[in-house]
Amino acid sequence: MKAAMWEEGESKYTLVEKDLRADVRRGIGAAQHYLMQIQREDGHWCGELEGDTILESEYILAMYFVGCASEERLHQAANYIRQKALSEGGWANYPGGPPDLSCSVKAYFALKLLGDLPGMPHMKKAKKVIRDLGGLDAVNTFTRIYLALFGQYPWERCPAVPPEIALIPRWFPLNLYEMSSWSRAILVPLSVIWALKPYVSVSDQANLNELWLDKPVPPSPAHGFWRQLFTTLDRALNFLERHRWTPWRAKALQACEQWMFDHFQNSHGIGAIFPPIINSIIALRCLGYSNDHPFMQSQIRELEKLEIEEGNTLRLIPCFSPIWDTVLAMVAHLESGLPADHPALLRAAEWVLSKEVKRIGDWKIKNPQGEPGGWYFEYANEFYPDADDTFQVLTALSKIHFPEKASQRRKQEAIDRALRWLLTMQNKDGGWGSFDRDCDKQCLTQIPFADHNAMIDPSTTDITARGLETLAALGFNREHPAVQRAITFVLKEQEADGSWFGRWGCNYIYGTWLALRGLECIGMDLTEERFQAAARWFRRIQNPDGGWGELARSYDSPEYKGQGPSTPSQTAWALMGLMSAGDFESSSLRRGIDYLLDSQRPDGSWRDDYWTGTGFPGVFYLRYHLYATYFPLLALGLFHKRL
């Protein structure tokens, strides 16, 4: 029901409407003030990026392996792991989730290494959970290899990760560059570890004999051509390995070593993310590098940057997110009323422009006609600009106005370079992936070591729809061929109930918001039934408290789509989806606005108690600490414009 009254030809708002406008303005002002207070001196924003205890567990195991962390820091990390244990036992890979086997085994082993006894309450409960979930035979590839380092899992039962993959020519259908960028970064150093099979002994007290089942659950039989083929190949590779028939091994190890050295350049570690940094440290030790060697020291320093010490605990972040945080904060400020030439936003834009990619990276292999441009996610990661960050940077920069002509021209030149790069990165299906073009060979997901569920980097609705918003901001219309192909891709991905899957945020709430937003911006008529179905889906899944939430379990079981405790960021996504579909007045939308206003904290921020970011669906999830503030600010800003 409309909250406005009309009398004698003049618009007069009811007291309720006036109060709502005032409340929204106050909420916007408080959020803007909070973000301004935490802006860094050089203009950028960077909130904490939180992951699960696999980070602390692998930190303990890796540092124990190379012997270069102080006993105190290892015990601080162990304290953090103990804090995160579930009451029923074991460890989850996201709040509200069930115990995860591989996460629990790594945590259990790390604690045993540091002296925790199996009879302690948290260890006793964890042991039962681990055995109930299948024991050591059921853990994933990465966990098996980490355990094998310490003699706790047989190397011959680890899936083969042969370094010879670095020698496969690029014209061959299955080569290193057909894998996703993050898989390359993880697997190249991991292949060195697998090939050299190092061993560090541990005390009898630390062994994991109690986690082996008397009657292990047999592995699922291989179904389908590619699964059977790769399973057979894996067995053959392990057979050749046992019989030491590896004629190209020395050359392969040299190629992997050189690949690592090349990718250390202009980057805060390979990919500037935790898993390759940890794997690189172990791989360098396997190759004979001492802890005081410059290469080893450089990677240890990058790892140390990811540490956060708090009280008697130590936790690690998977990486930094400064460019992503900065441009999302910029757009939230701009859409909520800050002028395009505000000094704080100009400083942010200058900082972003200083991070433009100007070197060729891995993307060039599958996109030979492309020229450098774009932005990455972290502070330094020149090999890996990505489409998602670059689209969002361009959206932010398109709204900024520098008073000086030289700065405005420099901004436009950077936009033009990035736009040309993005257009060459569009996939054949019309969508965009993250880091590479046409990285979509589904057969690679059937390789035995691919159980991290992220071997490829295909087109996704969320990135493609973000691209539509950006292209619209840069003056593109629906007649442009790239836009037409992107629209076709997004429409094709819509599900029967009106929703869209979200790859990089949890989950259908994220994907559906971005799809509607992108299509609205590019000029689609969202009064059509298929889009109104998406709006009805949002209204149907709203929680009784007026908010929206979706736990990561929807990646494992689609029947959980749109279900979970309310969070500010997911509520903001749902509200923006409804507004894109033309809903500014329903009771559903107003209750969502009330939820945001009521849950705002005294300092102007919000907090997501549950995680809403996605690393690898089904495997690794994230809590972006600033998601809970700049997305509600953006939603309130868009709503206020229409009040």
Features:
single chain, disordered N terminus, 2 domains, Glycosyltransferase, 7 strands, three-stranded antiparallel beta sheet, globular, 4% strand
Helix and strand succession?
A: EEHEHHHHHHHHHHEEHHHHHHHHHHEEH
What's the CATH architecture name of the largest domain?
Answer: Alpha/alpha barrel
Mean pLDDT: 93
Radius of gyration: 25 Å
Low-confidence stretches: 1-13
Number of strands: 7
Name the overall outline.
Answer: globular
CATH-defined fold name of the largest domain: Glycosyltransferase
What does the oligomeric state look like here? single chain
The largest sheet has its strands arranged as 3-7-6
Fold and architecture overview:
With 643 residues, the protein is mainly α. The chain has 2 domains: 358 residues, Glycosyltransferase (Alpha/alpha barrel); 254 residues, Glycosyltransferase. Helices cover 48% and strands 4% of the residues. It has 22 helices and 7 strands. The strands form 3 sheets. Strands 3-7-6 form a 3-stranded antiparallel beta sheet, with no helix packed on it. Strands 1-2 form a two-stranded antiparallel sheet. It is globular. The two termini are 14 Å apart.
Question: Which helices and strands appear, and what pairs or packs with what?
Answer:
Layout: E1 4-7, E2 10-13, H1 15-38, E3 49-50, H2 54-66, H3 71-83, H4 101-113, H5 121-132, H6 141-148, H7 181-196, H8 225-242, H9 249-264, H10 274-286, H11 294-305, E4 307-310, E5 313-316, H12 322-335, H13 343-353, H14 387-398, H15 405-424, H16 461-473, H17 481-493, H18 508-521, H19 529-540, H20 568-580, H21 587-599, E6 613-616, E7 620-624, H22 627-642
Antiparallel strand pairs: 1-2, 3-7, 4-5, 6-7
